[in-house]
Amino acid sequence: MISYEKNGRQIWSTHPIEKPYLVYQIGSANPQLAVEAALTVINDVSAIDLNCGCPKPFSTHAGMGANLLYTPDLLCGILSSLRAAVPSYIPVTAKIRLLPDVNDTLKLIERIISTGVSALTVHCRTKGMRKTEEAHVHRLAAIVDFVNHLGTGVPVIENGDCISREDGLKIRERTGELVLHCSFIRSNILAGAHSVMIATAAERNLSCFADGPLVDAETVLVPTYFSLVRHGAYRPPTRTDSFGLIGKIPEESLGKLKTLSVSIHFSGPYQWPGRAYLL
Length: 279
Ligand SMILES: Cc1cc2nc3c(=O)[nH]c(=O)nc-3n(C[C@H](O)[C@H](O)[C@H](O)COP(=O)(O)O)c2cc1C
Description:
The chain is of the alpha/beta class. The protein has helices at about 30-40, 55-60, 70-85, 100-115, 140-150, 165-180, 200-205, 215-230, 240-245, 255-265, and strands at about 1-5, 10-15, 25, 45-50, 90-100, 120-125, 155-160, 195, 275-279.
């Protein structure tokens, strides 16, 4: 395990096996602090992402998250600073939400792309939309088309309401079809979003990425997770992990799973810590 600690408290931990897949997301409204944070973790991650989409007050009250969408100079200043400071083999990316107005969204995206980001994730909801409201995936086609026309080759990753691999493939197709049918876009690019990001469904059942039906969380995922933790190949679950695993389980199994999650949490031995950074 690799542990980052401050004042005797663990701030973040990771395992080397995660590194090839690990994008470290930063919430910031300050270019210098963002760079400092990125350089702190740079040896243990594969990419740095700027959070420009979190609508929660703990982000927005300080100008972070979705509020950056309304301070584009600051947003792009942070991305440019990160791009300049982080080694070129580490991609810098951004995750945004939609702005209510289509053209405002495209203008913002053009500025973001010009900072040199390697990918752009678009959560297809506006800052004001609740997560229970259906994502506006239909707005993505114009965005993909626009970014493709900029000619930078930056991939656009769709986010919002995708719950399975099959769904992801459909979203890509659907986006393509929309481009085809919107003659006003005058596009000869038929591709939809380059990729899809899944959040809620993945927290509930990681096998949503697999080709095939979901595996049962209670009988397959949790025991596997348990043994990975016990053998030191994975970190113990956070509260969010546990709720994620428990989330989709039928009512009658909740008690059993909560007990299991607590026993995973206190189980041992695992190698702790392999490397510690004192911040
Ligand atoms: C518990 C929880 C925590 C989240 N934390 C983050 C976060 O730290 N950064 C971020 O960009 N989005 C975060 N999100 C938002 C998701 O990444 C995603 O944009 C949103 O849930 C829509 O995608 P989905 O329909 O696949 O869930 C979080 C969502 C949930 C449910």
